[in-house]
Amino acid sequence: MGSTGMLDIYDYLIGWTAYIAAGALCYIIFYRFTGTLRFKPLANTLRAILIAVMFTPWYVSAEDDLLAPAIIVMTLDLVTIGGTSFIRAMVPLTLSVLFAVIVALAGRILQKRFRGSSRNSH
């Protein structure tokens, strides 16, 4: 990220700040919509998947140290380069989604276990 590139560090940080702010707003709206679901484990799992998909970063190219959202890198690699190039961004995205689902379901299991033990102690 030298001064000869198209993007200097301040533009890069402003871009990420705008993306995170817009993503947070989208998450708040999605949170409100999924709040109407009666089956809370599904709502929490969908919320975790959205966070993982929106906020997982990955390298723009193999040579650069710039990061971008993995879903965008994957889509642009698929459209511009084609072939199987999109897999390099799909792997970390898939792993983060898997981890998010595991955390959401484990959180639900722990919540039920602690609620059950606190009811039995009273």
Question: What is the gist of this entry?
Answer:
This protein has 122 residues and is mainly alpha-helical. It is built from 4 helices and 2 strands.
Please tell me about this protein's structure:
By secondary structure, the chain is mainly alpha-helical. The protein has one domain. 73% of the residues lie in helices and 5% in strands. It has helices spanning 9-34, 40-55, 70-81, 87-121, and strands at 57-59, 67-69. A two-stranded antiparallel sheet has the order 1-2. It is elongated. The protein starts with 8 loop residues before the first helix and ends with a helix.
How many angstroms separate the termini? 60 Å
Strand content: under 5%
User: Cα-atom Rg, whole angstroms?
Assistant: 19 Å
SSE pattern: HHEEHH
Number of strands: 2
The number of helical elements comes to 4
Helix residue percentage? over 70%
Globally, the shape reads elongated
Pick out the low-confidence regions: none
Main sheet: strands, sense, barrel: 2 strands, antiparallel
How many structural domains?
A: 1
**Which structural class do you get from the secondary structure elements?**
mainly alpha
User: What's the overall average pLDDT, rounded?
Assistant: 87
Strand order within the widest beta sheet: 1-2
